[in-house]
């Protein structure tokens, strides 16, 4: 896999020379004296320094994009950067010569958990694609001291461990002390008046020093190296409590330090509800204010105080509502520090800022109590208040439903700051992340805004870094593809289309099957090592890997497995295709239901895997601590991709795209991006089941859906599965599952698990039955890869650049 570029290593020999020198320079010892962690650290530091040189050398003209996200799930970088610099083969051979296989060094790399799931990984894929496309993409996020918790499974239960990811240091980052800025919290606003001119200052409060750490983002081809800036909070010298210190009250003196450092201490592990913590609001403000201060400083250096042209040279994209304060904070800096007129400042903000919504889950839409917000951010809040006042004042009364529209769209409502409304009002563009999702935003979630400003709304269907999730994650298949159609697909994923004819090529299909088997064996070994569960690689590998959430319906998947279990035992003629069910994913700490589903899966695994009546037909494995690195082991081995959320709940999904690209066949509902996957791959190469969005809405609206009806209508089968939650069948490992049963039967099955059960299980049976025809199955699998090019984040970013950021206009 060679990238046509200015390679950082000209040959294996050149690499070995530079690497040996680097061992001396970075570790002061020869390669032979170093352990694998140190050898990895030196190699990463060498590649990082090369990347920084490339960045320093070339700084292309053109518009700067600043991608604000509170999460960047970047994953391990070395393997990806070696591919992007086009030197992976050279380094692999060199390491073999050194007697230390590259894979052994790569396995030393930390997997920074600076994100929860979909939103965070999307941001990282976007960074990879902006660099690959030569766009000046600047990431702006937080450098959490502790990332997303490490998940350990004890007696089937999720146990959270602190993620001390910086324990061995992080070779990719550079602390930029000289670029530190001060961010102010609290205090109060003072109005100043002098010969008719008046201005405001924010006095008192706490001053926090935001210190940036920069991480290079190497683009494929090695020509563009962009920057990911991650902010850390530290006490501003100015207000260290010296008196307390001198009075020997160190706790008080240190309290300020720990209060400040707490701001960037940890990632909030929720990927939907349960927000409203003041520390989270401080995080959201700190990286926004610090990011904007440095953006305007850089801009002013380049263009002078021509603030009215900011939107021509700078695009600020906000990843969900977490950076929503970009609007009012940009106005505060422009008005208070740069003397720009209020109306012009608002105009500049709207021209510059754009917003992506990633969920329609009501509990995930951020709202902050006005009192909390105003107390912490008194001056920034004044801009929100004034914009809201002017919005109401100038609201068009020419519509008969104007009161309702105002109620839907006003920022301040019911004592709360509605962050989604703030994001829309301060943005020139609002996009959803799949065609179905954007449609729901326009028709429901943000309908008021769509009626008022339809021109702002557009769809940008998500994408993934195909270089990482196929090129790096699946070397055997990637090599087969490159040997067959060349490696142009690494820079242009649409080239994967050239694989179509090979879907009918027996020798190619044979090689494909070999690669898939190699990946299944690799995963089976990883699962055996981490869980002790032995998976037979002749079984179908059926995979559901994502955050645990009721709407993603991991419970429906478990109900299917229990159904198979009961039927295999009760009906000897029932011979389902032997299948290994692989689950992985974390649940937010405080999300009890999700944690109970994890416990249920491990209990079902214990029962099924140890039951000789069934364990040659079905096996279950829960892979702990789902992260980017484990995901890269799971996707290549998968044959069935479970995407079974109820229709209208999953904004897009991205694991569906990664699994499709790696030749897994989707078993899914007509939800999120599954709809577009179905349209592109063709109905013969996917298995769709379940209610459609409109059927879900009608059923809910009818008020006629009762879980007990479903239960009583089929006591022997579905009823029995529900009973097994509490009748002891699954209680051996850690007890029964009353809370899950209650969620289903008492709270009336909000996620329609019982409703979609039958169409789901029969869809699964039809799909696995077709597995026997290996030629047909592999043909379909290869067609999934061949038709997955559209789901590269390169395509997504090209659309953002053209339609939202207006790059190259
Ligand atoms: C305030 C807590 C919180 C934190 C994160 C979030 C994210 C928006 C949740 C998230 O990751 N959403 C996922 O975003 C992916 C990328 O667009 C989509 O593919 C998934 O469908 C969506 O659930 C909501 C609320």
From TrEMBL:
InterPro entries: Glycg_phsphrylas, Glyco_trans_35, Pyridoxal_P_attach_site
Gene Ontology molecular-function annotations: glycogen phosphorylase activity; pyridoxal phosphate binding
Essential cofactor(s): pyridoxal 5'-phosphate
Matching Gene3D superfamilies: Glycogen Phosphorylase B
Modified residues (N6-(pyridoxal phosphate)lysine): 658
Alphabetical list of Pfam families matching this protein: Phosphorylase
One Gene Ontology cellular component annotation held by this UniProt entry: cytoplasm
Keywords recorded for this protein, A-Z: Allosteric enzyme, Carbohydrate metabolism, Glycosyltransferase, Pyridoxal phosphate, Transferase
This protein's record includes keyword Glycosyltransferase: yes
Any one Gene Ontology BP term: glycogen catabolic process
The keyword Transferase belongs to this UniProt entry's keyword annotation: yes
Catalytic activity entry: [(1->4)-alpha-D-glucosyl](n) + phosphate = [(1->4)-alpha-D-glucosyl](n-1) + alpha-D-glucose 1-phosphate
Organism domain of life: Bacteria
E.C. code: 2.4.1.1
Family statement: Belongs to the glycogen phosphorylase family.
The protein's role, per its UniProt record: Allosteric enzyme that catalyzes the rate-limiting step in glycogen catabolism, the phosphorolytic cleavage of glycogen to produce glucose-1-phosphate, and plays a central role in maintaining cellular and organismal glucose homeostasis. Phosphorylase is an important allosteric enzyme in carbohydrate metabolism. Enzymes from different sources differ in their regulatory mechanisms and in their natural substrates. However, all known phosphorylases share catalytic and structural properties.
PANTHER family: GLYCOGEN PHOSPHORYLASE, GLYCOGEN PHOSPHORYLASE, LIVER FORM
Name of protein: Alpha-1,4 glucan phosphorylase
The species this protein was found in: Olsenella porci
